[in-house]
Prior knowledge:
This protein starts with 12 loop residues before the first strand and ends in a 5-residue tail after the last helix. It is α/β, with parallel strands linked by helices.
Amino acid sequence: MSSSSATRHKQLHVALFPWLAFGHIIPFLEVAKHIARKGHKVSFISTPRNIQRLPKIPETLTPLITLVQIPLPHVENLPENAEATMDVPHDVIPYLKIAHDGLEQGISEFLQAQSPDWIIHDFAPHWLPPIATKLGISNAHFSIFNASTLCFLGSTSPNRVSRYAPRKKLEQYTSPPEWIPFPSKIYYRPFEAKRLVNGILTPNASGVTDHFRLESTIQGCQVYFIRSCREIEGEWLDLLEDLHEKPVVLPTGLLPPSLPRSDEDGGKDSDWSKIAEWLDKQEKGKVVYVAFGSELNLSQEEFNELALGLELSGLPFFWVLRKPSNGSGDGDSVKLPDGFEDRTKGRGHVWTTWAPQLKILSHESVGGFLTHCGWSSIIESLQYGRPLIMLPFMYDQGLIARFWDNKIGAEVPRDEETGWFTRNELANSLKLIVVDEEGKQYRDGANDYSKLFRDKELHDRYMDECVEYLETHAHHEV
Length: 478
């Protein structure tokens, strides 16, 4: 860190407002903790139920971090108590965006009353930058997506729109775009491109596209923080700055989470002791850990193929199968194939409540991670050198899978048009990554990357630079 340390700057007040998804909330909380460690005041804004579900904040930081609850407005088609994406099926998320936009008044009143030096926001509140500007509050966009994904999506700069306009045709998403000036394998498969165009570029029930939200919040910010690091995405970070014509794009590092101490687990220790007891009985490096995040809704056919592929592999597995918490009842959710649990008894374990993913991945019996390729999951897995069996389904997951494919794991082969995979292909992919001799290159690759991913000092230095930027560039005027 340079000589302008935190002691030379006045104490800042920094507000943070993540999108209503725990894949966003948790990295935002990591940023909040880092800012507080530097002696600054933090207001962490979300809805009451999301605030209640946050992991425990270390006692040393609680005096500096205020958890601000703004009630989520009631919206038709949004179930009672649904305050995060994990609470609703995928097709209900647009209604969560309507409710999120209803937080505008509460956020505006908070900013007026508290007058923080900075507000760090996500992609979703397209209405926020003008409010901050009017109040003389500096604002930063923090992207939990990685740089290569954002470069693939194109520019948000008004000067570049003719060349980098959002592509309207599906085939424009199934090859690397012309503005990427170096070799790249990053593009969508046809089945993913269909979902993307429907999901990001088409106006949803909230009345605006996700692309518009992204464009407004990036163009309206003073600094663009991004969860990445130069060691992995140096050329992509340079390109990102160029594409968006922002004066500064600052990587935050990977924000690798630390294993929670037992007193920070919120009383979930008994769960971990049961899981650990099962893992302890397994052979070192042979268990497949299976988890697909909290938003994925598989069809019954896909679900059957997944379960039967696990069975067919013959490998021990620990499968975290979260039932949707949207109150839709088990009748609406998928069911395990008949006899599956009996046939895999002892070898496989299906866990249906919250599970401490980081602790599981850190256990020496885990030899591979069957994942949807969310960026947080990849960071957690590579911290412990666990190779990946990649089965992406939505959002940026396919792009992330292509970025890492053949370095630290491999994608499960699928039909390009439909995204269909078979139990045989899945079983073969699991065996390749975890036990086959030819998969050793992926296991070695994951192990090599683990040094970089768990280098806490390196990632802390990135965050130090981000905090230093906040300290030296706040233009707070009352």
